[in-house]
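Input sequence (69 aa), recorded before submission:
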Amino acid sequence: MVQTGFASFDDTEPRVGLYIGGIFSIIGGIFLTIAGTVFLYFDFLKKKVIRTLGKVSDAVEEERKREKM
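Predicted structure, token format:
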């Protein structure tokens, strides 16, 4: 088996999936790094996000209570 370094759609070599998975891993890592930096260093954004998540969870809980009645 000769490796040429090019992605191929051959059934014998799963390189395309590895390349695509690697690209998505890199993009996900970049997003996680940016989100972590914003979350750690910008307190007003952190508080706003936590409040928003709290409101969403309260709304979900209210909807569940309504469905039970």
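Checked by second reader. The mean pLDDT is 81.
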